[in-house]
Amino acid sequence: MDSVGVKLLLIRSSPFAMSCALALRQKGVKFEEVPENLSARSDLLLRSNPVYKQVPVLIHNGKAVSQSLVILEYIEEAWPPSDTTPSLLPGSAYDRSLSRFWADFINKKFIETGLKLMKRFGEEHATARKEIVEQFITLEEGMRAIGSVGPYFLGQKMSLADLALVPLVPWFTSFEALGDLKFPGPEQCGRMHEWLNAMREDPDVVASVPTADWLLNYTLNFREYIKKHYPGGL
Ligand SMILES: N[C@@H](CCC(=O)N[C@@H](CS)C(=O)NCC(=O)O)C(=O)O
Fold first, then answer.
1. What is the 55 CA–ligand 1 centroid distance (Å)?
2. Deepest in the core among 84, 85, 87, 151, taking most CB within 10 A?
3. How far apart are the C-alpha atoms of 183 and 172, rounded to whole Å?
């Protein structure tokens, strides 16, 4: 496996970085986690992602790839499926489109709504609080509409949709605390809970996400910091 010099620039709490770390582990790629400080970005980050200046960034063969969904597609192509390397996409063109559609929804809608629970106040916080529960139910309905037998989003194998959703494993607890809300339980959202339980037992997931307790402590402290320094929200 060509894993020499593979680096992932990240912050430990980043949901977008968690997806990329899990994809690399699924492919069996050895990589170095390079922690960034977003208050004092390194020259490496500024050079590697001059457009957004955000993490995650994947560095492979000295070249930088940014934006988590682009990174996931890059990982699939750079380490193609073989007898020993799993694919991150399902077999049929239609299933691949579904996997990409849900990964996009999770990346652009679900996670962004959840982050507003940490970064916004007042009406914006109240709206995010309502929307995150609606979007959780949308994910449940999405999985059910696919009609697959789980535990993964599209059935028996992990794909891009699961990789995008994996940050939910620890963030779920933080979203509930930050929003003072409760997500629907297994009686209403059985597929989502089946998915969560399977992910919590997967060793690659465990290695790629922080614990819910660590993240909760981080997110509650960060919200206090934002309240003090950016009372209008970040
Ligand atoms: N759409 C990007 C989002 C990346 C993102 O928002 N990264 C955050 C950390 S979770 C960041 O670097 N924030 C710093 C900033 O935006 O200034 C992706 O999918 O990679």
1. 5
2. 151
3. 8
